[in-house]
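> run fold 4-hydroxybenzoate 3-monooxygenase
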Amino acid sequence: MVGAGPAGLTVGSILRAAGVGCLVLETATREVVEHRPRAGVIEEWAVRGLARRGLARTLLERAQAHTECEFRFAGERYRFGYTGLTGRHHFVYPQQFLVTDLVREYADVRGGEIRFGVRDVRLHGTGSARPAVSYVCPDSGERRFVEADFVAGCDGARGVTRASLPAGRVRLARHDYGVGWLALLAEAPPSSDCVVFGMHPRGFAGHMARSPEVTRYYLQCPPGDSPENWPHERVWAELRERLGAAGAPPLAEGRLIEKRVLDMHSYVVEPMAFGRLFLAGDAAHLTAPIAAKGLNLALHDAFLLGDGLVAALTKGDESALAGYSDACLARVWDYQEFSQWLAEMYHGTASGDPYRAGAALARLRRLFSSPAAAAEFAERYLGVRTTG
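> ok
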């Protein structure tokens, strides 16, 4: 497995539970891997999948269960109780906590090999029966080669595995949303007991609890904008404006400990398998954080890939691996389409186009006037329809 993120560590843990020898290679240090902030919303089916594989004990003890969200638009607040419509809920558990759990389970409990801080990872012979991966050892500076039966590319959007795909045999579908999001972490308690989405003529804003002391915020901004353009006072002034609504409590403000601009775009690589190389997570598909689907897709890939590799290596049955790409892509495209639909609702009111703004507001109002529309949204927001 190239990459010690949620996908690579989950695949490795599944293999180790079946007694299969494996190796995880990671360019960052263990400390960086276990502390870099990423996603925090995990769908219920994904948690059940982790629990079935013995990977959710700490998560189930510590995660918050969310049952509703709140939309704020046209100066009003609208609570949306998705658990009442579906019987399902979201778990809020910062990705760095999950990665810490998975590193411990894979390496410390199940005895999986993992090498942090490696450099210049290269793939060799992925179309052959015995592919290999080489890397430069951080301690000795020597290049080392590792032969394997399979290689799992779990090293993200900028990793080496996707860049190693054979030219002419891959289709990359990409969509740019034409907006940026200023991603913020604030040393401040959450200002609401649920996720809040603010649709405002000045741009979208989002509020997501990460812990009792830390809150994630998002502010729509121009693509390519610089975090330096967003000093402390401007950030909080915009958040107060865009998340303001009748009866809304004031925001609990605090020191900003992270500011970075995300240009909203998505892509899908097809197929997700090439010979003995299988891609998973952001190496295969990037979903803009609009619908909080990226971590969930990475776990879905990992469940299918880990189980498929176990069947191939312990039973000689490669049928699941043969269908891996198609099985993953069905969910990938479903989540991509939902993210695109949701993006128009989030950003339409700030588009400067009266038609798009009116259509976005009509979409929002329909969620609270049509039981069928509400049920449809709740199922897609929670990933209920595509649960396998």
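The CA atoms of residues 173 and 323 lie 20 Å apart.
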